[in-house]
Write a structure and sequence with these properties.
The chain has five helices and no strands. The protein is mostly helical. The chain has one domain: Alpha-Beta Complex (UDP-galactose 4-epimerase, domain 1), CATH 3.90.25. Helix 1 packs across helix 3 and helix 3 runs antiparallel to helix 4. The radius of gyration is 18 Å and the shape is flat.
């Protein structure tokens, strides 16, 4: 699981780093999970981006925040990028709103 911390650290630049918390933590801290199985099974949900692409977007958002950017615009841009990855999105939206 270290790669989840290492990846954005490397993408961040400027010699960014992280330090593992060695203090006593609840037992869940030993079993980190990123799991979408319930959303897939119950809703038919599929991710539009890979985990590394998601991490890239998080780093990009934080860079924009530090630069004083309009974060609502950054959010909308990233959301629009996600929606545009699914060619049938507009068609399904149109068909679901048709009489």
């Amino acid at each position: 699981m270290h790669w989840i911390a290492d990846y954005p650290t490397n993408v961040w630049g400027n010699s960014a780093g992280w330090v593992q918390d060695e203090s006593v933590n609840p037992h869940e801290a030993h079993y980190p999970k990123v799991c979408s199985s319930k959303a897939r099974a119950r809703l038919g949900w599929l991710p539009r981006w890979s985990l590394s692409e998601d991490l890239d977007k998080i780093v990009s958002w934080h860079h924009a925040c530090m630069a004083g950017a309009d974060l609502a615009a950054v959010y909308l841009d990233q959301t629009n990028q996600s929606i545009c990855l699914t060619p049938s999105y507009g068609a399904s939206l149109t068909s679901s709103t048709s009489p």
